[in-house]
């Protein structure tokens, strides 16, 4: 609920403040998590950790699981179960492991036989699980999507997934406030995807580091919820922890009738909307940085390189390294052009495409499919296009599209109509690019190898990808769609039938509102279980001395640190051989030019990175696991991406920020000379092999304390049980709609969780005799 303090606050400040369970003197906060989404890739090790420690899931009613990354998108006509359907061993194991875990811990799960299954960031909003003013997390970087509702939503690593499962809280710190205001009006043919690609071009992939972006201005206010989701989705590509948009009538309208939202028209709905309406930045609220963009300056935008900041208007040409002043960017441009097989000065519209992918958590919602269908209707996919795919974001999006006849429009023009999943966005399933194939893609990342080893990705809006499919080259939608309206501006709504009746009658609801204490949140406390409240577990980190490998690169993404094919493991160990796989090996042979393949650097304990923004992109904790398994326990860099930075600490590793260019070069010179470097955490100093200080560094007091003492966060947090409990009681009073309802019932008698609600008609996952085609 809004706090009484008078200092003007931003939307982010308000939501953060309302979730603080405990705050330490150094600013470390324990915050309560309202909504936890779970998928198969980042959860197995977390559940294993819970099992090993004898812990339970604290709030199954606030947890929703699905499978999305690994699953094939081929027809499920003959689907019986995931075990038989998924042919690839590791993918199958991850999916069946999740199925076991959701059973063991009593979690709500949308499996492959359930039409509510889909990409985790599509199903949360679709079900009304994502609500304004909530904290939403998932072991996935694109959790930022949910910020479109005025939620504080961000990606976390697997250790944090375990922390949330066990405690329903997270240890974090306040982020900075960044405001991006887009005013004016968007020209015809320009969508929210163009807006966000344009923004990332302006601020760069590290532009939002350490901050939460609030998107505002008349353009944003005019966007539908789905268009807003596409924007917040990509705030992670701008380096931000999260993106947020103040909830308004468009938000409330979207939420009406969603199965897990408060029931429209009820007392709870009215109470909720009055709270949600208060979630706006106050006049005079302070931002650490502000960016203003005029909507009329945005042209349909497209990426040319291997970072989401490498964008140009479709009317532009492939840039040259000379166009950049910064040395890092010059070098990246040169490498990107080579990787992408592009020549500077070539008009973007002359670039020939091989494949088209319309899907992903950025652009696989019903409006995206409608925008694409509008372009392709009555036309044929160009003959040079080897494959054009439409992958709806969820079973419900697919069903809705079919009811509107969109599937027919697509298949008539030569597109494949697939089943829901992440698909070729990152190709953990069979949908991948072959080497050197060029793809017009509506996804969010164009990193090297993202859609398949040596594949070449161009990011764009659904309308632009559809146009590329028809033209056979990158193309300007405005030249191919007659009198196009402003695409993505409308707010038509997917028809989500409430698939399960809320168990609450109006009487019950009134009772909850009048006597909330009778309705204790159904909490599973982990504290009494064996190992519950102990806090040990990680090897202590005090001083580290050893060989340091120099790496002269900027914006090293976690896809490069460990590519997707190695994310299919259900263990944390053994990933050292996969570290920097594409850089370390060519055709499975060691590349002698890569530093970690050279002499003494094979035994590096420290990595010295001279370019900024190390560890950007995906939240995969496999990146620090791979570094650790290789033997690297400390990374020194001018700056880090937020999620990677967090993930290292959770594994007893130390990321050191050295922003002083001269000091960093000195350390890099020691590394290049093959001398040992010493990182002394106790005294916060970096020294040369002789023990001479090169530079001092900063580290947060709490993190230092945990590293030096080898403390495990979960054990520490469980010692806060009474604070967490009182937060939960207050939450039940203030925001009763956040306690589980609908898919999981409340236990009327006490605090113990009850079983998942009866399988509704559409929950085919558990119904063996129902036809599976929909
Ligand atoms: C698998 C997951 C960790 C990852 C992410 O965090 O983004 C994935 O969704 C991606 O898009 O690369
Ligand atoms: S970015 Fe791609 S792989 Fe990651 S969650 Fe979204 S659709 Fe899935």
What's the short story on this structure?
With 774 residues, the chain is an alpha/beta fold.
Features:
774 residues; 28 strands; disordered C terminus; alpha/beta; 26 helices; binds iron/sulfur cluster; 7-stranded mixed β-sheet; binds 3-isopropylmalic acid; 5-stranded parallel β-sheet
Summarize the main sheet: 7 strands, mixed
Please state how the strands of the largest beta sheet are arranged side by side.
Answer: 25-24-23-20-26-27-28
Q: Which regions are unreliable across 5 or more consecutive residues at pLDDT < 50?
A: 483-492, 497-521, 528-532, 745-774
Cα shape: globular
The fraction of residues assigned to DSSP E strands is 5-15%
Ligands, ions, cofactors = 3-isopropylmalic acid, iron/sulfur cluster
User: What is the average of the pLDDT values?
Assistant: 90
Helix content: 25-40%
Number of strands: 28
State the end-to-end distance.
42 Å
Task: Describe the protein's architecture and organization.
Strand 1 (20-23) and strand 2 (29-32) form a beta hairpin. The chain is built from 26 helices and 28 strands. 30% of the residues lie in helices and 15% in strands. Strands 25-24-23-20-26-27-28 form a 7-stranded mixed β-sheet. It has a 5-stranded parallel β-sheet with strand order 5-4-3-6-7, sandwiched between helices. It is an alpha/beta fold and 774 residues long. Bound molecules: 3-isopropylmalic acid and iron/sulfur cluster. Iron/sulfur cluster is lined by residues 68-69, 119, 140, 142, 360-361, 422, 425-426, 443-444.
